[in-house]
Design goal:
Chains: A alpha+beta, B alpha+beta, C alpha/beta
CATH class of the largest domain in chain B: Alpha Beta
Radius of gyration of chain C: 27 Å
Shape of chain B: globular
Number of strands of chain C: 18
Largest sheet of chain B: 4 strands, mixed
CATH topology of the largest domain in chain C: Rossmann fold
CATH class of the largest domain in chain C: Alpha Beta
Oligomer: heterotrimer
Strand order of the largest sheet of chain C: 2-1-3-4-5
Structural class of chain B: alpha+beta
Number of helices of chain C: 25
Number of strands of chain B: 4
Shape of chain C: globular
CATH superfamily of the largest domain in chain B: Glutaredoxin
Largest interface: B-C, 47 and 57 residues
Number of domains of chain B: 2
CATH architecture of the largest domain in chain B: 3-Layer(aba) Sandwich
Strand order of the largest sheet of chain B: 2-1-3-4
CATH topology of the largest domain in chain B: Glutaredoxin
Radius of gyration of chain B: 18 Å
């Protein structure tokens, strides 16, 4: 076991685990979106940039999911710098998010809502202007609807699909600000598979993937 | 909507098929194969994506996901005379954007599009490395340095006239 | 040891004999620069014109294609070496096909070198001033580009005859540790941008566990406005290949890969041929020069994603995935391509290795500064008299580089700024002109060596627009993986776009600064971490320009088109001239009742053609900002302009 200090508490963690997993196990919450429990520090995507922490000896704030715990490490999860960056990251995500919680299946179980609550910010994105994608729904997947304006591009759906299926249907497409998750191969045979799997639906933190009520004929 | 395949496209697909089949397999081949397909067709229609996907035993979704990440790959056919306007820093400082706009205005298409007769397409390219000649544009393979808005019309006209001339000559012979 | 040297000596002797035969031939030799920039300026046509003219006149001569000398402003560049004429080898700039024909007739046939067309002799002599009298030549120090423009890149024997692959033979006679120690003693720092010590990278890779290690040459030069890597690969590929083999020997790698942009077709072609030739000569493959070293090189064409210049993204794309970077560590030297230890070095870094091994660390340390030894290659472009590639010792000041070596700002304009390091770099104002060019000095003032792109801007450039340009680039090239870069750069761009349209608001500048800092701190990879640099530096050094856009709706560089208008000064306009009417692409220029001209502000697209077209004697077209200051001239209703 490794012993380290997090927010002035001495905590223990399994060797080779990440600072994020160590803190979470010890009951210290760090906001995160793209991390899966099985992720080793060398494999975590570190894409959402919400789990930033300050670690003594590091020049800059660093994503807690990619740092391996070390004996004697001192971690601060709630410094002013960390909170400022987390709030900015959240606001950036919200600036491309259609905040319409009432009509969203993730309402009350939404990762964005939870993180906003934790950080004590609302769901507004000021001072950033809201920029939404067109169209609001992508129905190319045989059984799912994808809502780009709910998606935070954490990539969890793409990863679970890849873990479960040899020939995964979900993939990232395009690049940069235009990046989307999607399926670009309406293979009807695969649809049956998707109905029984549902892993992506269940793992989506923000309700961006929804089972279509009327299946394409 | 994607444009329908032309007879020429189908012919190219037919020659591409055995080339791809003869290529090595393995995920690392994905980008070289896409490059091979685009070289043959000038762009990547769905049919070409499928060929690559089937050869590597991955979904078309996966192939599109990779192809759409890179600037090199295009999903609509280029014009016979692709216009490439350099958007490098030196060209920008010397008015590259105005050149681009002039092509867009004269050809009545936007950057990334192809004219209906498939004669022209316009794209912006990163530095072509002729900064001393800025602003620069390529029409087909020919590079035109020290571009000016007033030269745009002449270039387009010249290509159209040459085409007409070629057609006339073809009709006569 | 002796075996390696003997094997090399056989190849070297053969190459030297061939080269000497060529050099000592009394036939005239015409050397034409044929890299992409030369070809773009018409070198192919020039070559054809020489060949036709020689054939027509029945003159026997060698037409010798070489790479690029870096003098882009003078392309196509031709050197004519005609020993029997009594003149030294002469360099001619801007040799058009017409000039080529003329030179064949007058110089090669009649012996008159036509002094009015000469730039200078390439060697010191008594008859013709040498090019070394120009600062552009004499102030350069060529290490990386030494052979560029002197040898034919497609003929390996020319490289070998010039001492090429000698460093490899020397390195193979020693130990890997000795090579790394030499590179360390030389203080070589990576030429790809950040300036990381090369020896340290190599040592980590050497120590890393795992077989089948890789050496990758990063030639994914994506910075808009930098093209030295391409020029080097097109002009002297073997120096890079030699550096790569030495690197492989030093780190214990067995496989090499060139990652070259597919947008560089000529470089790809020349490099492919060069690797093939090196293999034939036994510099690549099994048991190189009998040393027991096995190493071979493949080529991968990068598909155009700026982010793939980042090591981990480059690796992903070679593996066949979307080129998205991952967090480091683990560094590629430990876990890289296919999970194997991988050294990734820039083209110029690798090209610097053979000269260091050949001439020693002390020689290298004698060039440049203590912390940044060696030379720097810049592509100096923009508003500068002699644009092109320049290789200078580190520590030369920006002022010397821009004004002495590159001839300063043309058209009697004033210097405003220099942008260094491309999209990751920064804009420096005149007060920084005495900054020495080296890794640390540039970083200290907020710019960065980066890829070596240098864009010089005169008083007519708008710094807000330049920031917008770079942000537009990075925003488009962001891979989209991490939140700060994907969305943050978009908001930065939106604000900058608003400013250039004159829709800036109170608080915009503060927001630009805050968000820029957040993107720098929060982003995953180097692209995001440096993307705000152009904004932050220009805000620091040209804040008044930003404020003018917001508060006065004025663009001081008169570049932002919504804030600028063109009008015709009626006191200067000559009635008889129609130059401005004819050149306008949108028919916005009209003739008034007294036959003077006016501009329809509604139609005008502000391309500036009329300003160029207006004869200097009149100089009647005026550009003004804010746009509202342009006097309104009514368009006469009754008559249209074109009949």
């Amino acid at each position: 076991m490794i012993t380290l200090t997090a927010d002035n508490r001495t905590i223990q963690a399994r060797e080779g685990s990440s600072v994020l997993s160590a803190c979470l196990s010890a009951g210290i919450y760090i906001p995160h979106l793209c991390w899966l429990e099985a992720d080793a520090p060398a494999d975590a995507p570190a894409a959402c940039r919400l789990c930033l922490v300050e670690i003594e000896g590091f020049r800059e704030p660093v994503a807690a999911c990619v740092v391996t715990v070390e004996n004697g490490m001192t971690v601060h999860t709630g410094t002013e710098t960390v909170r400022r960056l987390q709030k900015t990251a959240l606001k950036l995500l919200l600036s491309v998010h259609r905040v319409d919680c009432k009509h969203c299946p993730a309402n009350k179980a939404c990762a964005l809502q939870n993180i906003a609550k934790f950080l004590g910010t609302g769901l507004g994105c000021k001072p950033f202007e809201r920029v939404l994608k067109e169209p609001d729904v992508d129905s190319r997947h045989p059984v799912l609807d994808y809502y780009p304006n709910r998606c935070v591009l954490c990539g969890i759906c793409v990863r679970v699909c890849r873990q479960r299926h040899q020939r995964p249907l979900l993939s990232f497409a395009r690049r940069g600000f235009e990046t989307v998750v999607g399926c670009f191969d309406a293979d009807p045979v695969a649809a049956a598979d998707c109905m029984s799997c549902r892993a992506c639906l269940e793992s989506c933190p923000t309700g961006a993937l929804v089972q279509r009520t009327v299946v394409k004929g | 909507m994607p444009l329908p395949l032309t007879a020429e496209d189908r012919l190219h697909l037919k020659t591409l098929q055995p080339q791809i089949a003869a290529s090595p397999k393995g995920r690392g081949q994905l980008i070289p194969l896409l490059q091979m397909a685009q070289k043959a067709l000038g762009y990547l229609p769905d049919e070409a994506l499928s060929l690559v996907a089937d050869h590597l035993a991955v979904t078309r979704s996966e192939v599109y996901g990779v192809a759409s990440f890179y600037n090199q790959f295009r999903f609509n056919p280029p014009g016979k005379n692709p216009v490439k306007v350099c958007m490098g820093t030196a060209c920008h400082v010397r008015g590259g954007e105005i050149i681009l706009e002039n092509f867009e205005r004269k050809l009545e298409i936007r950057e990334g599009e192809t004219t209906e007769d498939r004669e022209f397409s316009i794209e912006r390219v990163a530095c072509v490395g002729c900064c001393a000649l800025a602003p620069v544009a390529l029409v087909g393979e020919t590079l035109h340095g020290h571009m000016a808005p007033s030269k745009v019309e002449g270039l387009v006209l010249r290509v159209r006239l040459e085409k007409e001339k070629a057609e006339r000559e073809a009709a006569h012979s | 040891m002796a075996r390696i040297q003997a094997a090399y000596r056989i190849l070297a002797d053969e190459a030297r004999t061939r080269r000497e035969q060529f050099d000592q031939s009394s036939l005239p030799k015409i050397h034409i620069g044929m890299a992409t920039c030369g070809i773009a300026s018409g070198a192919l046509e020039t070559k054809a014109a020489f060949e036709t003219a020689l054939a027509d006149r029945g003159i026997d001569a060698h037409v010798h294609t070489v790479g690029c000398v870096g003098h882009c402003y003078a392309e196509p560049v031709v050197v004519i070496d005609y020993p029997d004429s009594g003149f030294p080898p002469i360099l001619y700039p801007e040799v058009t096909p017409g000039k080529a024909k003329m030179l064949v007739k007058l110089f090669l046939e009649e012996g008159d070198p036509r002094f009015e067309h000469i730039m200078g002799a390439t060697v010191e002599n008594e008859m013709i001033p040498s090019v070394m009298e120009f600062a552009r030549f004499s102030r350069e120090k060529r290490v990386v580009m030494d052979r560029c423009g002197r040898i034919d890149p497609e003929q390996i024997h020319e490289y070998i005859a010039d001492g090429g692959y000698g460093a490899l033979a020397k390195a193979l006679c020693g130990t890997p540790e000795a090579v790394i120690a030499e590179i360390e003693a030389a203080g070589l720092r990576g030429r790809g941008g950040a300036g990381f010590p090369t020896a340290r990278k190599w040592r980590t890779a050497r120590a890393a566990k795992g077989s089948d290690k890789w050496v990758v040459c990063n030639a994914d030069e994506g910075d808009p406005g930098a093209y030295m890597d391409r020029t080097l690969l097109e002009s002297n590929p073997h120096q890079v290949i030699e550096g790569m083999i030495i690197a492989a020997m030093a780190v214990g790698a067995s496989r090499g890969l060139f990652y070259v942009r597919a947008e560089y077709p000529l470089a790809v072609r020349i490099l492919t041929a060069a690797v093939e030739q090196a293999r034939e000569m036994g510099f690549l493959g099994a048991d190189i020069l009998g040393s027991g070293l096995d190493f071979d090189i493949d080529l991968f064409q990068g598909s155009g994603a700026f982010v793939c210049g980042e090591e981990t993204a480059l690796i992903r794309s070679v593996e066949g995935y979307r080129g998205m970077p991952r967090h480091r560590p683990p560094y590629p030297v430990e876990r890289g391509l296919d999970g194997r230890p991988t050294v990734i070095n820039n083209v110029k870094t690798l090209a610097t290795v053979p000269p260091i091994v050949d001439k020693g660390a002390d020689w290298f340390r004698g060039i440049g500064t203590a912390d940044s030894p060696g030379t720097a290659v810049f592509s100096v472009v923009g508003n500068v008299t002699h644009p092109g590639l320049v290789e200078i010792p580190m520590g030369v000041t920006l002022r010397e580089l821009i004004f002495d070596i590159c001839g300063g700002i043309p058209n009697k304009k004033k210097f405003k700024a220099v942008q260094i390091g491309g999209p990751s770099g920064g804009c420096l104002s005149a007060e920084f002109l005495d900054t020495p060019v080296d890794f640390d000095a540039l970083t200290r003032v907020g710019a960065m060596m980066g890829s070596g792109g240098m864009v010089v801007m005169d008083e007519d450039c708008c710094m807000v627009d330049v920031s917008r340009f770079f942000l537009d680039f990075t925003q488009k090239e962001s891979c989209g993986k991490c939140t700060f870069c994907r969305i943050g750069t978009r908001h930065l761009l939106d604000i900058l776009r608003r400013l250039t349209r004159g829709e800036g608001r109170e608080g915009d500048l503060e927001q630009l600064e805050t968000l820029s800092r957040a993107v720098k701190q929060g982003s995953l990879c180097g692209l995001g971490k440096t993307a705000p640099n152009p904004v932050l530096t220009s805000l620091a050094y040209f804040r008044d320009e930003y404020e003018a856009h917001i508060k006065e709706g004025r663009c001081p560089g008169r570049t932002c088109r919504t804030l600028t208008a063109f009008y015709i000064d009626l006191d200067k306009c000559a009635r008889g001239c129609d130059a401005c009417v004819g050149c306008c692409p949108v028919e916005a220029v009209f003739t008034t009742s007294n036959r003077k001209k006016g501009i329809d502000q509604q139609l005008c697209v502000k391309c500036g053609e009329c300003m160029v077209a207006c004869p200097p004697d009149y100089d009647a077209v005026v550009k003004i900002s804010p746009a509202a200051l342009a006097p309104v001239i009514e368009r006469p209703a009754e008559k249209k302009t074109e009949n």
